[in-house]
């Protein structure tokens, strides 16, 4: 075969198996305990984005003794899904047991592009309390930034006290466990559809 002739034959371009419009938005979300290292990595990256870069509460990292040494600590994630598969962490919160029966939630963060979908944050809070409740929680507490207090009050949390943490006013709040039935399947968690999440 003539090499010159074969060089002129065009190779067809390889097409991606799926082309999504730049306007595509996920239609399903999963709220669950992090079950894979990539979920933990993206959750920590989201925390750095929100608490270090956006809010400047911490200089370089928001990791603390709860992350480093508390064996009961669990990361929860809100995941966007593509074709039914988890695709990206777009929200997170962590929980830990500070004393027998006393659990705390902290580091609630939702990616800026997704904050208008209010059910993501409230569903993270719900799974945090419900999964702790299934583990014997008798009191669930959180220090909540002042701007988020109304959300927590709508979700049946009560203000106990106010204090300044990291230079910002926080409310010490407690969840009403009667509104949070135990969830014994936190790795399955909850599924939200786009219609329900907006």
The CATH class, by name, is Alpha Beta
> Whole-Å distance between the termini?
62 Å
Q: Please tally the helical runs, counting DSSP H or I stretches of 4 or more residues.
A: 6
Q: What portion of the residues fall into strands of 2 or more residues?
A: 25-35%
Structural class: alpha+beta
The appropriate CATH architecture is 3-Layer(aba) Sandwich
Summarize the amount of helix as a percent range: 25-40%
Strand order of the largest sheet: 6-7-5-4-3-2-1-8
Choose one word for the global shape.
Answer: globular
Helix and strand pattern: HEHHEEEHEHEEEH
- Compute the gyration radius: what is it? 21 Å
What report would you give on this structure?
This protein has helices spanning 3-7, 37-54, 65-69, 119-134, 149-154, 194-197; strands at 28-33, 74-82, 85-99, 102-110, 139-145, 157-165, 168-175, 190-193. With 198 residues, it is of the alpha+beta class. The protein has a single domain (27-197), classed as Gcn5-related N-acetyltransferase (GNAT) (Aminopeptidase, 3-Layer(aba) Sandwich), CATH 3.40.630. The radius of gyration is 21 Å and the shape is globular. The model has no long low-confidence stretch (mean pLDDT 88).
């Amino acid at each position: 075969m003539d090499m010159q002739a074969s060089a002129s034959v065009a190779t067809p371009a390889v097409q991606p198996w799926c082309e999504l419009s730049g306007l595509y938005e996920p239609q399903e979300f999963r709220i669950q305990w992090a079950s894979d290292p990539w979920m933990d990595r993206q959750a920590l990256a989201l925390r750095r984005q929100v608490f270090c870069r956006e809010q400047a509460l911490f200089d370089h990292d928001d990791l603390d003794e709860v992350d480093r040494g508390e064996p009961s600590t669990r990361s929860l994630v809100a995941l966007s899904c593509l074709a039914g598969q988890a695709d990206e962490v777009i929200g997170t919160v962590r929980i830990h047991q500070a004393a027998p029966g006393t659990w705390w939630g902290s580091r609630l963060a939702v990616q800026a592009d997704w904050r208008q979908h209010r059910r993501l944050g409230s569903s993270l809070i719900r799974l945090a309390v419900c999964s702790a409740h299934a583990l014997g929680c008798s009191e669930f507490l959180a220090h909540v930034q002042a701007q988020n207090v109304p959300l927590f009050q709508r979700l049946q949390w009560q203000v106990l006290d106010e204090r300044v943490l990291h230079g910002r006013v926080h409310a010490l709040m407690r969840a009403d466990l009667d509104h949070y039935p135990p969830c014994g399947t936190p790795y399955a968690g909850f599924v939200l559809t786009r219609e329900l999440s907006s």
